Amino acid sequence: MTEKTTSDLVLEQLKQGLALPGDLYTSPTLFAEEVSAIFGRQWLYAGHVSEIPHAGDYLTVTSGDESCIVARDADGEIHGLLNVCRHRGARLVDCGTGSTRRFVCPYHQWAYSHDGSLAGAPRMPDSFDKSRWPLKKVHTSVWQGLVFVNFSSEEEVESLPELMADAAELMNPFGVEDARIAHTEVYEVDANWKLVWENAQECYHCNANHPEFIRTFDVREMAQPTAGEAPLWYSEDRRSQSARFPLKPGAVSLTMSGRPASAKPMGEFADGREPYTAAAHLKPGFAFVFSPDYGITFVDTPVSPDRTHVKVQWLVHRDAVEGVDYAVDNLIRVWDQTNRQDWELCRSVQEGVKSHGFEPGPLSLDETSVAGFYYAYARMMSAAGL
Ligand code: FES
Ligand code: FE
């Protein structure tokens, strides 16, 4: 008899409409498998193009043992480079963003250009051929001003624009590529990365837990839309998902007052397009939500079975000026509060599922997207034979 895989087990739970067993959130073995089989093979969000506007600017993205430098060269092209020196393997740059003429290895000073080619290596024999030792490439794709990387070593990497095709139509009007980052928060969440996602998939918990969020977000309309339009689009495997976010009557932005937090509308909304709010997800780690005046990006990075980093960035129109067009406090209030409330809920679930008495319960009518996440997870795991 062959042993049951994780994906089989998840599909069985799904068939019964049940949540997942506790050890899926606590097992170090499974965690290591997920990091390599899922995060090591899927598109991961690296940052917004405005973070690396000039030649030599770079940012880094890490996932498990992998680290990538995303650098802009003198022609404006963006390169994904494995952050591992070709000599004896040192990291070239620390985490974070920066700007440099060349990537010089701190160990023995091998120097690389922005496209990864080896430009200099001291005291090598005459026979040494620099052209044979460029930094290894990491796949990159820029979609609507958002830079993604993919650590997969396979030649065949899926097309990101194809994966995001449904979200494109919904997101185009926001002109995300013309935004810039107004604020960044990195949250440490004491919960498994899947619990963070499950929480983000449903608003079954919103009325009881998110007083700021529900000032403008219409939970009932989301659950039972009256607008007559499908509120949700998703890819067949449920990795990519996008939706309009219904706001309460009179509200035009996800803010405390429902009024814009930034005076400079984004994209087509500056030309008077009817306001709406939309969200899109790309599993395993990325989501964004945009109102006409500002948006946020979420990146969910697994750290250990019971710990997750969530980086949230607030974006505004690139011409919006702090203190004139927006105030950071007001801009971030709803999502910052909502996030903190969510992380507390995730932490409490992480505690609960550790109990020997935990038995996965049935999902509600408002958690169909949680089931969708389970399905996406099962598909990503089964693609790796797990
Ligand atoms: Fe980078 Fe030696 S490890 S130059
Ligand atoms: Fe929430």
TrEMBL record:
Q: What InterPro entries would the database entry show? A: Rieske_2Fe-2S (IPR017941), Rieske_2Fe-2S_sf (IPR036922), Ring_hydroxy_dOase_asu_C_dom (IPR015879), Rng_hydr_dOase-A (IPR001663)
Q: Which residues form a coiled coil?
A: none
Q: Which residues form the Rieske domain?
A: 44-149
Does the keyword Calcium feature in the UniProt annotation?
A: no
* Keyword field: 2Fe-2S, Dioxygenase, Iron, Iron-sulfur, Metal-binding, Oxidoreductase
Name-wise, this protein is Aromatic ring-hydroxylating dioxygenase subunit alpha
Q: Which PANTHER family match?
A: CHOLINE MONOOXYGENASE, CHLOROPLASTIC (PTHR43756)
Q: Per the record's keyword annotation, is NAD included, yes or no?
A: no
Q: Which GO terms describe its molecular function?
A: 2 iron, 2 sulfur cluster binding; dioxygenase activity; iron ion binding; monooxygenase activity; oxidoreductase activity, acting on paired donors, with incorporation or reduction of molecular oxygen
Gene3D superfamilies from the entry? Naphthalene 1,2-dioxygenase Alpha Subunit, Chain A, domain 1, Rieske [2Fe-2S] iron-sulphur domain
Tell me which cofactor or cofactors this protein depends on.
Fe cation
